[in-house]
Amino acid sequence: MRYGYWLPVFGGWLRNIEDERMEASWDYVSRLARRSEQIGFGLTLIAELNLNDIKGVDAPSLDAWSTAAALAAVTESLELMIAVRPTFHLPALLAKQAANIDQISRGRVSLNVVSSWWAEEAKKYGVQFDQHDDRYARTSEWLDVVDAAWKQDHFNYSGRYYSVNDLVLQPKPVARPRPTIYAGGESEAAKELIAQKCDAYVMHGDPPERIAGKIGDMALRREKKNLPQMQYGVAAYAIVRETEEEARAELRRITDVQQNAAGYQNYQQWLANTQLEQRVSLEDYSVSNRGLRSGLVGTPQQVADRIGEFEDAGVDLLLLQFSPQSEEMERFADSVIRPRQQAVAQRV
């Protein structure tokens, strides 16, 4: 299992807790990233939103791309999975930008391609907002251009959404054959696109048995297309305490839903513009990306056992959220990551 985490570019993950003691600042995220390399985390997901959908649109949020470029220069081993929304970036220019950051990081950049869902944000920033399946049609062309730009020069492309003529991109990314492309989605359009053109499938939080079914479905799609096996990641919010009672008390605290919270309206827009396989509860609203459904809540042994179930289901990567991030990542590393790594070493 690889352990990744969401970089707290929004100042937290809890919609019901106003101050999580993790400010949206370069100072905080840079210290966090450098420390995470030392305690067992191998990847950080840097979300891309120009507005803050967790704490409300008037709250600060960090820019994903300039933050990633800066982190590339101050970290040594951390994979930088940068979220990117095709409607906000011309593909050839994004390919150039990502290749440059990959050079700075010596091959540690990857993309998490997200077909935009927030219509109001797009309107505020003057960006085209397509309907659901149109967004995936655009993303398909976008991926074609990015992939070709990374692998060849003097490339021509003419599509419905994008065109390039005699495109040259140098230097190419360090990563070969290209930086890893992750993507997530639960609609048929999303799953077909991801199976065809991406390297890894990342999923919202769900129990291991449900995740196993999703992995099986995606694996079958890949097999039918004669494509190699994918990587699989799952979002999860982790609460680790000495006793189960303490963990459950923290769970009750963060799921005390306040429907007048600043992020609630943004959450409603996400539901309206996203095609999900199941209904989302107000408890899911409390923590982003359905993180609580993964069930990483309990004692260190309970959480470790749950991670083992995800491994058995075929999961390669956990994309974790914590609050407050720095303190809880330290706790997770001490009580879960290190003991599991030691157990594996002993078996070997």
In short:
The chain contains twelve helices and twelve strands. The protein has 348 residues and is an alpha/beta fold.
How are the elements arranged and paired?
Blueprint: E1 2-6, H1 26-38, E2 43-46, H2 64-74, E3 79-84, H3 91-105, E4 109-113, H4 119-124, H5 132-151, E5 155-158, E6 163-167, E7 181-183, H6 188-197, E8 200-203, H7 208-224, E9 231-237, E10 239-240, H8 244-254, H9 264-272, H10 282-286, E11 297-298, H11 300-313, E12 317-321, H12 325-347
Parallel strand pairs: 1-2, 1-12, 2-3, 3-4, 4-7, 7-8, 8-9, 9-12, 10-11
Antiparallel strand pairs: 5-6
Helix pairs in contact: 1-2, 2-3, 3-5, 5-6, 6-7, 7-11, 11-12
Question: Could you describe the 3D structure shown?
Answer:
The structure is a single chain. By secondary structure, this protein is of the alpha/beta class. Helices cover 44% and strands 15% of the residues. It is built from twelve helices and twelve strands. The protein is globular and about 60 Å long. The protein starts with a strand and ends with a helix. 43% of the residues are buried. The model has no long low-confidence stretch (mean pLDDT 92).
